[in-house]
Amino acid sequence: MISVTEALLGRRSTRAFLDRPVAMEVVRDIIETARRAPSGGNLQPWKLAAMTGEDLKRLKASVRESFARNPKGEGPEYPIYPNPLKETYDERRRKCGEDMYAAIGIGRENKQGRLQQFVRNYDFFGAPVGMILAMDRTMGSAQWTDAGIFLQSVLLLAQERGLATCPQAAWAVVHKTVRAHLAWPDELAVICGISLGYADPAHPINAAVMDRAPFDDVAQLRGFTAASAQTLSSLAGQPA
Ligand SMILES: Cc1cc2nc3c(=O)[nH]c(=O)nc-3n(C[C@H](O)[C@H](O)[C@H](O)COP(=O)(O)O)c2cc1C
């Protein structure tokens, strides 16, 4: 079994999957375990639906119909990015897109190619399992943190089982169709979709590795000394 570190470092947003089913027991086990994620006040505000087979096909067909009626989507459930996005973050977002499209040879000017790739979101990138994560819309920022912790738990547990994933805020754009398909009440806000399956190792889009901002841009270490770090690492090797 891989370590948490290995799962974290090995996970990638995967956008091409093999045509290989995932057993219900495995999906159930991932969700059962992710339920142990912490949440403020133990609210456990998340709701998750996992679909495969005919049920998933029906959702995808409903989404295609929705886009045919309204190509702009159903209006996002929540602002997916702040508008305007501050420069630092806007640069990161652009680079993410550039790196992804470069991996499949789609240039900046190829708007049609970019759109076609974006639309693959609504096919769950060919994954055999599509999941939808939602939360009661009365919940606030603190509970969005909880949902994020739950989401990452699902992603890492899948990684541990040799599965690949892609979290997809794109699914929030078709929230009405998703709710209708799942017979969910309006009070549930669709946070994102999650593709789940076995990664296609041969597909170039899966070769894109997104970089990260430097450590010092996102974190600070204060009051530590090299000596105390050394003491800790030598203690780690001692029997309890
Ligand atoms: C909440 C959330 C929503 C995301 N939405 C999408 C999406 O709609 N479509 C997509 O292709 N990737 C989506 N991503 C994947 C990000 O682009 C990806 O996590 C980021 O570029 C870092 O790459 P990595 O996950 O491969 O490390 C989303 C990720 C998160 C956490």
Automatic annotation (TrEMBL):
GO MF entries: oxidoreductase activity
Keywords: Flavoprotein, FMN, Oxidoreductase
Matches recorded under Gene3D superfamilies: NADH Oxidase (3.40.109.10)
InterPro entries linked to this entry: Nitroreductase (IPR029479), Nitroreductase-like (IPR000415), Nitroreductase/BluB (IPR050627)
Superkingdom in the source lineage: Bacteria
Residue ranges constituting the Nitroreductase domain according to the UniProt record: 9-198
Name of the protein in question: Nitroreductase
